Amino acid sequence: MILRAAEQTIRSLLLGFPIVTITGPRQSGKTxxxxxxxxxxxxxxxxxxxxRLTATDDPRSFLNRFPDGAVxxxxxxxxxxxxxxxxxxDADGRMGLFILTGSQQFGLLSGISQSxxxxxxxxxLLPFSLDELARSGIMPQKLDEMLVKGGYPPLYDRAVPPxxxxxxxxxxxxxxxxxxxxxxxxxxxxxxxxxxxAGRTGQLLNLSSLAxxxxxxxxxxxxxxxxxxxxxxxxxxxxxxxxxxxxxxxxPKLYFYDSxxxxxxLGIQTPQQLENHPLRGGIFETFVVAELMKSRLNIGExxxxxxxxxxxxxxxxxxxxxxxxxxxxxxKSGATVARDFFATLEKWLALSGDLAVSPLLIYGxxxxxxxxxxxxxxxxxxxxxxxx
Length: 388
Hints:
This protein is α/β, with parallel strands linked by helices. The protein is built from 17 helices and 14 strands. The strands form 3 sheets. The chain has a 6-stranded mixed beta sheet, with helices on both faces. Helix 17 (about 345-350) links the parallel strand 11 and strand 12. The longest helix is centred in the middle third of the chain and has 20 residues, at about 160-180. It is globular, with a radius of gyration of 22 Å.
């Protein structure tokens, strides 16, 4: 098993909470990690219809089967047990009794916030980070190979090509998750919507344009974006509020959690096809932003990440809040650093003054060094960045 960066975070949280809830996309390794941490405790999956029926019909008796706690997998499939779980851990008083996992934020988080407030900590587990792959010695050595493959664990422990695995993953996701959350009648239209989103990764989200291109209403597009967010397929990066006397863009930017999934949705099946693809820059930016997200989530911190863009088009790709100060991050997919790579950062640093710390330029090459106070970071070194 590949050691997950979030494992120590979860073990620490179990010392102070009776329950830890692990959320994240399907196939991100939640079950494997939960079993490894609670190796001596029972494991039950509420995806199993028989188990779910038992838990729904008699939740109190179901939980009594686990006097010393357990791993309860895909708990969003049986939200009825959450209130009984609250009573159970309150009466017991011990810490570290249960690990819950869930692949959807809808239902799960609202149910837990109502029933288990103060009794559970949350950890969001995304696909493998670059750091996890590097420490395990299985990280692809070429950038385009890394982007096409992505970080989903099954691609690293099975002899399966990414195009075959992603095809099955998307089919299962649509059939299993989307129909549970939203009454999508035209699956082909929804699939087209997801592919159109992939084509806009790293770009400002214009929901009206996206919906029109897909042939759906604005409200339907908004609902479908929410479903994709709830299932950890994509996320929105919000604009930072600091205006420095500039008019700011208010629309969010759209990103996927995994570059490999983006490539598959765009029909990119090999590193060679990606090399000269017109969306390669957006895919690389998606990869880097997702890596920065993982570095924060794996230590149990909220991302605290934004982007900054004014009405004249001056944009900093990522702003990471660090207390009252901010870390600006510029992302360039080129393998060779050019002088103009620094232009945006230099202008923003002049505007922000003392508010800025540790400016970063992350690029598609491999060398890392300091240039006029800006830390230049090759893509492989993103795994070692600490932005907390």
